Amino acid sequence: MALQPECVELHIAYIGAERVRAYRELDPSLGKPILVVFSELSSATQAWAQDQYDIEIWDVDILRERAAQFPELANRFEALTGSVTDEPVPQSAEPITHKLQSELTEHVRDNVLTPTQYEELCMRVFMHLFDPDLYGFAKQASTSDGANRYDFICRIRPGNPFWDGLRADFRTKAILFECKNYEGQISADQVYSTEGYLFVGALRTVCLLISRLPAKDSAIRAAQGAMRESGKLILLLSNEDLIQMLELRSQAGAAENYLDKKIWDFVISLPR
């Protein structure tokens, strides 16, 4: 299966932006960075990098435009890029998919990631699986009082039947993600704290609560209570669920069907 262009772009931008951010953390006095990418990026991907990382991206089109006023430099640039831009090489989704699966599997086995690294891994998985239907991913957003922080959030782009249905059924404009990088299984306490980030009146009613290992029964009961009492969906996922969805990625709509079945099984299991 050929990798969708927007997925390639986001992966390129993400890797580069993360490296730039590391340099900025070493020297906060640096000005706004410029990331040079030797490929063509869409305006949407460039806007994403600007919004998420406050960086400017110069892709091959911008470089060509800036070199145009210097004839000798422009000729050298075209000589370098001609073979690349005229005959683009098809790219496969499999290397990215397999890398993400390997990272998740290693984390289950050895718990090798820090909490921040785990959040970033989960975000890369969902971007890879569901872009462009889920977009506008924002990391570690604080609530207005500054007291609480959820790991990341994204918006739902209209047009996909599954995500459109989820948005309509639960009256939500966004999906929240909480990533629990615990040594053991998560319990009801983690569900209760997550429920505090969801508000029916604010059209923020759905959270995917991801943990390294499957949740305890007490966590499942707590999620059932949130659904039954206030209509909030807290869907419990583990690394194994993410691995399974990545395995299904090559089949159109299969990852969405996986989530749909998880939600259906959860709904029909609700006690009185």
Number of helical elements = 11
The fraction of residues in strands falls at 15-25%
Give the H and E element order.
Answer: HEHEHHHHEEHEHEHEHH
Mind telling me the CATH class of the largest domain?
Alpha Beta
Q: Cα distance, first to last residue?
A: 45 Å
The residue ranges in which pLDDT falls below 50 over 5 or more consecutive positions are 1-5, 83-90, 143-148
Main sheet attributes: strand count, strand direction, barrel closure: 5 strands, mixed
Strand line-up in the sheet with most strands = 3-4-5-6-7
Number of domains: 2
Might you state the CATH topology name of the largest domain? Restriction Endonuclease
Give the quaternary arrangement of the chains.
Answer: single chain
CATH architecture of the largest domain: 3-Layer(aba) Sandwich
Query: Structural class of the helices, strands and pairings?
Result: alpha/beta
Mean pLDDT: 82
What Rg, in angstroms, do the CA atoms define? 21 Å
Structural notes for this entry:
This is Restriction endonuclease type IV Mrr domain-containing protein. It comes from Sphingomonas crocodyli. With 272 residues, this protein is α/β, with parallel strands linked by helices. The chain folds into 2 domains: 5-86, no CATH class; 94-268, Restriction Endonuclease (3-Layer(aba) Sandwich). The chain has 11 helices and 7 strands. The chain has a 5-stranded mixed β-sheet, with helices on both faces. The longest helix has 22 residues, at 5-26. It is elongated and about 75 Å long. The termini are far apart. The relative contact order is 0.10. Residues 1-5, 83-90 and 143-148 have low confidence and may be disordered.
